[in-house]
Each structure stands twice: as C-alpha cells, then as structure tokens.
Amino acid sequence: MKKDLYSWILVLTSILGLNACTSLATVSLTTIPAQRNSVVKAEASKTIFLGFNFDNDFVNDMENQLKRQCPNGIISGILTKDEVIDYFLFIVWQHRVTATGYCTKANGTADQAPRLKTDRNPAQESDSGAEQ
Amino acid sequence: MKTSVLRLATATLLLTSCTHSVHLVNFSDDIPLSKKSSARPVQSKAEQFVVLGFATDTNYVNQAYQNLQSQCPQGQIGGIATKYYTDHGFFSWTNVIAMEGFCYN
Asked: How much is the pTM?
C-alpha cells in the first residue's frame, strides 16, 4: 500500500517536473493603430536557477529590437507579455518577455517629422541665444 | 450536526469558484477628445482553464488581442483597459484576460 503511494507521488512529481508549466506574470497593451500591415516583434528571455538572478538587463535590448524593425515609423498596438516557464519543480525557470506591435508610417516620414524637444541641446541653445 | 454543517460549508467553498484575484489592470492612452462622441466601445475576453498548474502557453492573451482588433478592422483602438485576473476553483483555476477599449476613425 505504502509502495503504491510512493509510486503515485513519484509519477505525479515527474509529470509536474517534466512539464514546462507556463504562467503569465504581466501583460500590457497600448493604443492599436488602424494600419496593421507591418507586424514587429521582439523577444527576450532569461533562465534562472534556484532564484539566483542579479539583474533584469535581458529586457533592455527589446526596445532597440522593435526600433530596428521600424526605423522610419511609429510603433503602436504593442502587446507585451511577461511569462514565467517552470521547467523543473521551481528549481529552474525561465522569464520570457515578448512584445508584438505594428509599425505605421508617420505623417510623411519619420525623418520629416518634427523632432522632439528632448532632442534639443539646451547648452547649445543658450550659447546661440547669447550670441544673438 | 455542527460538524456536518462545517463540512458542507467547506466543501461548498472549495467546489465553487469563490475567490478571485486581480493581478493587474493596465490602461493605454485615452482617445482624442474630438473622437469621444463618435467612438464605439469594443471588448474582448479570453480564458484559460488550469488544473493543478498545468498550462503550457499563454496564447489566450493573443486570442483576446486578435479578437479586440477584429471588432475594429478599419479604425484605431484607444483607451484600452486590460485586466488580468484569476477565478479560483477546486484544485483548478481560470485565468482571464479582459480588454475593453474604444474604436474610432
């Protein structure tokens, strides 16, 4: 009887352990554009062993991944998912972040679009102001 | 008698989906003021039933995303409220993703 119980526990543990159980940690969605022809995607993941994780830098390149796919447009309708995939009894797991969105043309092109105020260099402006 | 009532109450609590937890609520940018009167609400919901944690994907989120877009094929969707919550059941639970927004041209 006891042997049967141990066998069942072993089987259940194996099933639980060998399956990659996936759960959703966070999700976010931005305004979806009318033009949805050009899809852009970015993905980043990190495998973590026994919870030893010293930074979350793996997500930093995602923004550039998206920008590279849409150099002259605007990215919107971005669905971002942060998933946790448990590979073995919460000893090894993976964080996977995926972002999917749409690249839309700006009015004209991005090169012709007015630059943001954040692109200004206040130091240069004050210099030119002083000259005037 | 008292024990039976307690047992019944416990079983009822466990067998029915009696607790719910909200994991996150997210809002996108609101729609332009000039479009408020003409915008129409759209909503989408997708679920995933999970027994003992066995779930191998989160594709239900993508289903909700696609479903929301299919309701507004020609327009923009803004003011989107995304809610992610879980309804708990007996050794099982249902993950729910609900998206509500406004379609405008």
From this structure: 0.76
